[in-house]
Design brief:
Elements lengths: L24 E2 L2 E9 L3 E8 L5 E8 L6 H16 L8 E6 L5 E6 L4 E2 H7 L4 H20 L2 E2 L8 E6 L2 E6 L6 E2 L25 H4 L8 H17 L6 H6 L1 H11 L5 H6 L4 H7 L5 H8 L2 H9 L11 H12 L11 H11 L1 H23 L4 H20 L8 H14 L1 H4 L4 H17 L3 H18 L5 H16 L3 H19 L4 H16 L3 H18 L5 H17 L2 H19 L4 H16 L3 H19 L4 H16 L3 H19 L4 H16 L3 H19 L4 H16 L3 H19 L4 H16 L3 H19 L4 E2 L5 E2 L1 H14 L3 H13 L21 H22 L1
Antiparallel strand pairs: 1-2, 2-3, 3-4, 4-6, 5-6, 7-9, 8-11, 9-10, 12-13
Helix pairs in contact: 3-5, 3-12, 5-11, 11-12, 14-15, 14-16, 14-18, 16-18, 18-19, 19-20, 20-21, 21-22, 22-23, 22-24, 23-24, 24-25, 24-26, 25-26, 26-27, 26-28, 27-28, 28-29, 29-30, 30-31, 30-32, 31-32, 32-33, 33-34, 34-35, 34-36, 35-36, 36-37, 37-38
Pfam families: Pkinase (PF00069), TPR_10 (PF13374), TPR_12 (PF13424)
Protein name: Tetratricopeptide repeat protein
Keywords: ATP-binding, Membrane, Nucleotide-binding, TPR repeat, Transmembrane, Transmembrane helix
C-alpha cells in the first residue's frame, strides 16, 4: 500500500541534505535540496546548466526500492509522462540512470501547492474552484487520450501556481499510471496480490478490489470526484482515520458497500469546522450548504458511483456537466423532472426572475417588520415562509415551452405594486425598501416607465427619512439614474449624477468607489448628450482613479473603460477605442465569464466601433453572438435583446444591406409597440429607425406617416428639446423636402436648428448638422444668397472646432468640413460665380473629399457642367467613390 504522503514536488522547509544523504550531482544535474519523498522515489530540486540553464524536479528511485517490479513501475511513469503535452501536466525533460544503476528523470519544476491548499489560502469561491477543477479534468482527459491512466489522483499530485496572474494546475506523479491500450515498457507491469496501487481515500471501488483487472478511465473519474468533494465541502467522503483503521479488507468493503454523505450534508455535519470551511470559500455555512444542494451534490455523487457504469464516462463528461451547472442549464446528473427544469429555467433568467424573488423576500421581510411591532413574531415568520413557498411553487410550475416568463413576473410585480402605498403608509422605510426592489425588477424587465415611479418615490422617502447623504438614499438615486438614462432623459440623469457626485466627494473623498461610480455616470450622461470633450475628459480622469484605487479588473474599472471606449469611438480616436474595448472584453471575460452581462456590453460597444470603422463582418459576428446569448437568457422580446438587434440592423444599414436592415427594424418596432406601448421611449426610437430606413431606400411616402406619428408622440413624451425629438424632427424635415413639401420642411429645419443652438450651443456638431441641412433646403428653394451665408458660417465653425477630419455621429455617419465647402460651392455656382465655386470644390478635393452618391448633387452644379476643371473634379470623385465602395465590399 502506498504511503499517505506520496512523492510530490510541493515545496517544503527541509534544509539541504548533507553529503551523507544526497549526492552533489546526478548526471548533468546539481542537487539543491530534497523536495519530497514517496513510496518508491525521492524528488530533488536540481539545477541543470547545459544545454540550457533551468531548475528541474529530479525524481530518483529510492535506495533499497530498486526491485524489478518497482523499476518497471518507475520506467512506466517516465514513459507515460513523455507521451504528455498539455499545460495541466508537468513536462518531462530528460531521463537516465545514476552510476549505481538507479533510474531517474528530470521534469518541470512546479513551484506550486496542492490544489486544496491553493483554493483555501486564496479563499476561492465555489465558482472559481469549479473553473479551476475543470482545467484539471482537461489535463486528465489528455492523458486518457494518450491511453494512460493516472490511478493516484489526489490534491498533493495536483499542484497549482500562479502563471501571469492566473492559477495554472499541473498534474504530477504518474508513478502508478497504467497504459490502457499500449505497452509502456518492454517488461510486464502488474499489481501483486495484496498490494494496493494508489491512495485509499481517493481510490475507486474497482481499484481497491484486487480481483478486478480491467481498470479503465472511470477510476480516474472517481478520484476526481473525491477531489471535487473535498474542494467544495472541505472534507473527504470517508474519514481518513476510520478508513485506514479498517485494514485491507475493511477498506475494500467500505469503498464497495458504504455510500458517503452528499457534500451539502457533509458540510452541515462538521460543527464548528463548518464556519471556517465556509469562510475559506467567502461565504457563510448556510449559504455554502445551500449552494451545494442540487446540481453539485448530483454531479459529485455521480462521479462517486460504486457501479462505474453509472459514473461519467470520462473527465470531459464531468467537466461538461460542471459547465452546464455554471451556465444554469440542467445537468445530466440531475433528475429530469419538470420542477427541476423549471427551476433551472428560472436561474438562467435570473435577471428578471431573480429580482422577482428578491421582491417576494422583501415583501416577506416587510410582513415580519410589521408584525414584530405587534409582538407576533412567530406568525410573521410563518407568513413570510408561506410567501417564499408560494414563490417556489410558482416558479416550479412554469413550463418554459408554454409560458412566457415576463408575463408571470410582471403580473406578480403589478399586483405587489398596487398596494405598496396603502399597506405601508405608516412604515415609510419599509415602503421605500420595497419600492426600490420593485423598481429594480421593473428595470430588469425593461419596463423603465414603471420603474421610474417606484424609484422616484423611494428616493423621496429616503431623502426625507434618512437624509440626502445616507448610502441608502444614494443607492436609490443610482438606480433612478440608469432608469432616466434608459428613458433617454439625459438632462434628468445628468442632474442626478451631478448631485450624487457632489455628496460623495464631500462625504467619502475623491477616489472612493462611490465617488468614482458617480463620475462614470456623469461622464456617461455627457456622452449621451453628445458632449464628447466633457465626457472624454471626465471618463479619463475616472479611469485613472479606478485603476489606482480598485485595480484594472474591478467591474467599475472595466465599466469605465467601456464608456470611454464608446466615447472615443465616435468623438476623437476610433483606433484607441478599438484597443480599449478589446481589452475591456478580455478583462470582462476573465472577471465575469464569457457570457456575463458586462462582457456582453463590452462586446456590443466593440461591435459599434467595428461598424464605424466599416468592419461590418466583424461587427455582425459579434452582434449575432450577443443576440444568441441574450435570447437564450432573456427571451425574444426583452428590451436588451431588441437593443442588440437594433445594433445589428444599424450595421446592415451602413453596409448598404437595406432590405435586411428594414426587416430587423420593422420586427423590433412591432415587438416594442406590442410589449411596451407606443409611448415608450424605446418604442419611439424604434419607429424613428424604421422611418429612417424607408428614407434610405427613397420610400419617402412610406416614411412620412411613421415619422409624423413618431414626432408627435416624442414631443408629448420627451418634450420639444430632447435629442431624440430633434432627430425625429430632422428626419421628418428631410422627408418633407424630398416630397416637395418645402414650406413645412423649412419650418421643421428652422425649429431644429434654433432649438439645438439654444440647448447645445452653436459649436455643437448636432447644431452644425442642423445648419447644414437647412442650408441644403435653402438651395432647393432657390434662396442662394441665404444658403451662402448659412453655409459660410457653418464652414467657419466646423473648421475652427473640428478641422478637416470628419466627426461621426452615433450612427457612424460623418459630417465633414468638406460638406459645407460643397454646399457653399453650390450656392456660388447657382449664382453664376464659377471661379469661386471651382476653387471651393478643388479645395474640398485637396482635403480628401469623397461625395458618396455624388450624382445627387450634380443638378445644383449645372452651370459648371462642360467646364474642364469641373469635369476633372467629377472624374476624380468617381474614382474615389469606386475605391471606397470596393473597400466596403471587401
Amino acid at each position: 500500500m502506498e504511503r499517505d504522503d506520496p512523492t510530490s514536488q510541493q515545496e517544503t522547509t527541509n534544509s539541504i541534505p548533507g553529503p551523507n544523504h544526497t549526492p552533489v550531482h546526478i548526471g548533468p544535474y546539481r542537487i539543491l535540496e530534497k523536495l519530497g519523498e514517496g513510496g518508491m522515489g525521492v524528488v530533488y530540486l536540481a539545477e541543470q546548466t547545459e544545454p540550457v540553464r533551468r531548475r528541474v524536479a529530479l525524481k530518483v528511485i529510492k535506495l533499497g526500492m530498486d526491485t524489478k517490479q518497482v523499476v518497471v513501475r518507475f520506467e512506466s511513469e517516465r514513459q507515460a509522462l513523455a507521451l504528455m503535452d498539455h499545460p495541466a501536466i508537468a513536462k518531462v525533460f530528460d531521463a537516465g540512470t545514476t552510476p549505481e544503476g538507479r533510474p531517474y528523470f528530470a521534469m518541470e519544476y512546479v513551484k506550486g501547492v496542492p490544489i486544496t491548499e491553493y483554493c483555501d489560502t486564496r479563499r476561492l469561491g465555489t465558482r472559481e474552484r469549479l473553473q479551476l477543477f475543470q482545467r484539471v479534468c482537461e489535463g486528465v482527459q489528455h492523458a486518457h487520450q494518450k491511453a494512460v491512466l493516472h490511478r493516484d489522483l489526489k490534491p498533493s499530485n495536483i499542484l497549482v501556481a500562479d502563471v501571469d496572474g492566473k492559477p495554472q494546475p499541473r498534474i504530477i506523479d504518474f508513478g502508478v499510471a497504467k497504459a490502457t491500450t499500449q505497452k509502456l515498457t518492454e517488461q510486464t507491469m502488474y499489481t501483486a496480490v495484496g498490494q494496493l496501487i494508489g491512495t485509499p481515500e481517493y481510490m475507486s471501488p474497482e481499484q481497491a478490489d484486487l480481483t478486478v483487472e480491467d481498470i479503465d478511465t472511470r477510476t480516474d473519474v472517481y478520484s476526481l470526484g473525491v477531489i471535487l468533494y473535498q474542494l467544495l465541502s472541505g472534507a473527504l467522503p470517508f474519514d481518513s482515520k476510520q478508513l485506514r483503521q479498517a485494514g485491507f479488507e475493511g477498506i475494500i468493503r467500505l469503498l464497495r458497500e458504504k455510500d458517503p454523505p452528499r457534500p451539502s450534508t457533509k458540510v452541515s455535519s462538521l460543527g464548528e469546522q463548518t464556519t471556517q470551511i465556509a469562510q475559506r470559500r467567502r461565504t457563510g455555512p448556510r449559504r455554502l450548504a445551500g449552494a451545494l444542494k442540487g446540481d453539485l451534490d448530483w454531479i459529485v455523487m455521480r462521479s462517486l458511483e460504486k457501479d462505474r457504469n453509472r459514473r461519467y464516462g470520462s473527465p470531459q463528461e464531468l467537466a461538461q456537466d460542471i459547465q452546464r451547472h455554471l451556465n444554469n442549464e440542467p445537468v445530466l446528473a440531475g433528475p429530469p423532472s419538470a420542477t427541476y427544469r423549471a427551476r433551472k429555467f428560472a436561474k438562467r433568467n435570473r435577471v428578471a426572475v431573480g429580482f422577482a424573488t428578491t421582491v417576494v423576500f422583501a415583501v416577506a421581510a416587510g410582513f415580519i417588520l410589521l408584525t414584530v411591532q405587534n409582538a407576533k413574531i412567530t406568525a410573521a415568520r410563518d407568513e413570510a415562509e408561506s410567501v417564499v413557498t408560494t414563490l417556489e411553487e410558482m416558479l416550479a410550475s412554469v413550463d418554459p415551452t408554454k409560458s412566457g416568463r415576463d408575463v408571470t413576473v410582471k403580473e406578480m410585480l403589478d399586483e405587489t405594486a398596487k398596494t405598496l402605498g396603502e399597506n405601508f403608509k405608516n412604515q415609510p422605510l419599509t415602503e421605500s425598501r420595497l419600492r426600490y426592489t420593485v423598481g429594480k425588477t421593473y428595470f430588469a424587465l425593461g419596463e423603465f416607465d414603471a420603474a421610474e415611479g417606484h424609484l422616484l418615490r423611494a428616493v423621496e422617502i429616503r431623502r426625507e427619512e434618512l437624509g440626502p447623504e445616507n448610502i441608502a438614499t444614494l443607492m436609490a438615486m443610482g438606480q433612478l439614474y440608469w432608469t432616466y438614462r434608459n428613458q433617454n432623459r439625459f438632462k434628468d440623469a445628468e442632474q442626478l449624477a451631478q448631485e450624487a457626485l457632489e455628496i460623495n466627494r464631500r462625504v467619502v473623498g475623491e477616489e472612493n468607489i462611490r465617488t468614482l461610480r458617480c463620475m462614470m455616470k456623469l461622464g456617461d450622461s455627457y456622452q449621451a448628450q453628445f458632449r464628447w470633450a466633457e465626457a472624454e475628459s471626465l471618463l479619463r480622469e475616472t479611469l485613472d482613479g479606478c485603476r489606482r484605487a480598485l485595480g484594472k479588473e474591478h467591474p467599475l474599472t472595466i465599466g469605465t473603460m467601456l464608456k470611454l471606449g464608446q466615447c472615443l469611438s465616435i468623438s476623437s480616436s476610433p483606433d484607441e477605442a478599438l484597443t480599449m474595448l478589446r481589452e475591456a472584453v478580455e478583462l470582462s471575460s476573465r472577471a465575469f465569464g464569457e457570457k456575463g452581462s458586462q462582457t456582453l456590453e463590452s462586446m456590443g460597444a466593440l461591435a459599434t466601433v467595428y461598424t464605424i470603422q466599416r468592419r461590418y463582418e466583424e461587427a455582425e459576428e459579434l452582434r449575432r453572438e450577443i443576440i444568441e446569448i441574450r435570447r437564450r437568457d432573456l427571451g425574444d422580446e426583452h428590451t436588451w435583446v431588441l437593443s442588440q438587434i437594433d445594433g445589428l440592423a444599424r450595421t446592415y444599414r451602413l453596409h448598404g444591406r437595406y432590405a435586411e436592415a428594414e426587416s430587423l427594424y420593422r420586427a423590433v418596432a412591432e415587438i416594442r409597440v406590442r410589449v411596451q406601448g407606443k409611448e415608450s421611449s424605446r418604442t419611439l426610437a424604434a419607429m424613428n429607425n424604421l422611418g429612417m430606413i424607408y428614407m434610405d431606400r427613397g420610400r419617402y411616402k412610406e416614411a412620412e406617416p411613421i415619422l409624423r406619428e413618431t414626432l408627435k408622440l416624442m414631443r408629448r413624451v420627451n418634450g420639444n428639446e430632447h435629442g431624440y425629438t430633434l432627430r425625429a424632427m430632422s428626419n421628418l424635415g428631410e422627408t418633407c423636402q424630398n416630397l416637395g413639401q418645402l414650406s413645412e420642411a423649412e419650418t421643421l429645419r428652422r425649429e431644429c436648428l434654433e432649438t439645438r443652438r439654444r440647448v447645445l450651443g452653436e459649436d455643437h456638431r448636432e447644431t452644425l448638422s442642423a445648419m447644414f441641412h437647412l442650408g441644403d433646403l435653402l438651395l432647393t428653394q432657390g434662396r442662394y444668397d441665404e444658403a451662402e451665408l448659412l453655409n459660410r458660417k457653418g464652414l467657419q465653425i466646423n473648421q475652427r472646432v473640428h478641422g478637416e477630419a470628419p466627426h461621426g455621429d452615433d450612427y457612424g455617419v460623418p459630417l465633414q468640413t468638406n460638406d459645407f465647402r460643397y454646399n457653399l460651392a453650390c450656392s456660388m455656382a447657382l449664382q453664376g460665380r464659377r471661379r469661386e465655386a471651382l476653387s471651393l470644390l478643388q479645395e474640398a478635393l485637396d482635403n480628401g473629399y469623397t461625395a458618396q452618391g455624388f450624382s445627387g448633387w450634380k443638378p445644383n452644379l449645372t452651370y459648371l457642367q462642360g467646364d474642364p476643371e469641373f469635369e476633372a473634379i467629377v472624374e476624380e470623385l468617381k474614382r474615389r467613390n469606386e475605391e471606397d465602395e470596393s473597400a466596403m465590399v471587401e
